Amino acid sequence: MSSFVRAWYVLVVLGLVTFALMAFVGRAPVSFTAYVGAPGELPARVGTAARQTAASLVDRRDYRAEIAALSDALAEERQKVRLLEVANERLAALADVQATQTPGAELVAPVARGFVGQASRQLELAAGTDAGVQRLMPATAPAGLVGLVTDVTPRRAVVRSIMDPNSRVGVTVRGKGGQGVAVGALGPNLSVVRFIEDQDVQVGDVVETSSIGGLFPRGIEIGRVVALDPDDPNDVRSSFVVEPSVSFGTLQDVVLIAPQ
Fold it and tell me: Cα(155)–Cα(208) distance, rounded to whole angstroms?
């Protein structure tokens, strides 16, 4: 085989390598037609191709690093947007309570911990006196009454919910009057006892806070009547079961009202 033929084969192999590199880095490091020349120029041309290929690979690594940095920055901006959305949701809840329940609503506190154990139905808030929380502040939500702040520290507070067995809330039936006391229970519902009726109570009636006790603003929804206890012919008072309006298992924030 003559030296000319061997040189031609070398040119063909280099051409194939060039196409392979073009598929890997996205562009050819040097024009294929540049290989069609004198065999003595091959070492210089191969060196140029190698340098351009190495530069392309370095550029690709730089692009990847830049893309990673932009992705991190985008994730950070998205988190900032989400925090603003949460703040807006809390302001909307505060405005809702001020408009529909009481203008005395003052602040929104996040729920740090839900019901713990079987003997109590208390909530822990991730806010305390440093944020303006005070003892005996009624706690509510747009859906209805939550409970009462019973203990507070600089950064934490405890709310005794209306579902706690030690809770007592004066109530009436919306649109029908009457007076009674809502008592917490460990089950899914609470009981209204010693209720003196102005009109017959029926399943589906809305139960709300009354002025009895003086701890809660009047007219905040507590729940709906789901069952009536049998009447006692020797007692003019009645009792019934109420399903709370607030979903305590999914509660994330409470609106706190100035102490009465």
Answer: 31
Q: What is the pLDDT of residues 76-132, one digit of tens each?
A: 888 888 888 888 888 899 999 999 999 999 999 999 998 766 667 899 999 999 999
Token readout for 174 is 């919306």
| Residue-range domain boundaries for the chain | 1-100, 106-257
Q: What torsion, rounded to 10 degrees, do the Cα atoms 88, 94, 98, 100 define? A: 90
DSSP string, 38-78: -GGGHHHHHHHHHHHHHHHHHHHHHHHHHHHHHHHHHHHHH
**pLDDT confidence of residue 169:** 96
Rounded CA-CA distance 18/33 in Å is 11
CA-based nearest residue to 25, from 46, 1, 49: 49
Can you identify the CATH homologous superfamily of domain 106-257? Rod shape-determining protein MreC, domain 1 (2.40.10.340)
pLDDT tens profile 125-171: 999 999 999 999 999 999 999 999 999 999 999 999 999 999 999 99
Share of the chain above pLDDT 90, in %: 54
